[in-house]
Amino acid sequence: MYQNEKLYDYLMEHTDEITEEWYNSVKISAPEGIYSSPDSQVIDNLKRQNNDFHKRFFAVFNSEIDTFENSIKEWIDEIAKDEEHLNTPLHLILNEFNRTEEQYYRLLDQYVDEVENQYSVKEIIHWYRIIDDWFRKISVRFVEEHTKYAKQRIEAQEEVIMELSSPVISLSPQVALLPLVGNIDSFRSKIILDKTIDQCSKQRVNYLLLDLSGVVTIDEIVAEELMHLIRALKLIGVTTTLSGMRPELARSTVQLGIMFEEVTIKPSLAEAIQSREFTFK
Length: 281
Description:
alpha/beta, Globin-like, Transcription Regulator spoIIAA, 2 domains, 5 strands
């Protein structure tokens, strides 16, 4: 690691200055995401993160390589998984890396002008190369970490969606309700099959009210999946009652040649609940 105490001290003296300079122009360069937030807490934290980066980066001229790399990795990890940054387009974040690098070059230009002939051209060029090399490495590392955390967040959101795709709602110790809403494709129908069986088993459900009043369309594959669900539930001791089948939904199932003959059907959820086939305890 190339160390230069005088250069390090000079750069550190200007950390607050370049943070303010950076933030005053950031809304022009990145007019959305975290950079456009009017929230004072978000702004203060953004400035802190920016200022912290300067202090960690300038240590490249004052610390051992391992210490410097670990410090930078800590900063990258914090920013990459920060919710505000995850909600900001990646290209805008990378643009701010570039603008910060340009700030460092201007600051280095000032220092070189002030020290005049105290250093060789070779030494000065080396300073610029250090900044350039590390910014390229940091940008790549940040993209990797940002992508990783973004993927984890998407997977978590998909898991929530999957859970909501088949929300088995307990009405009593033995009775539960599964309200289906929206369009059901083959992918979602398979999720419903797996999740419903699992939840009914865990909740020890004996009777399930399967309400279709919120379902708009249904195709042959989905209808067959629903029949598979009803049969699978029967195998684990769950009796299913269908309710809320709209006229257009009923017509499409008949046209497809699918008849729900193995299940009790009620016109509405209210009538299904009032059914004497089970009692609430």
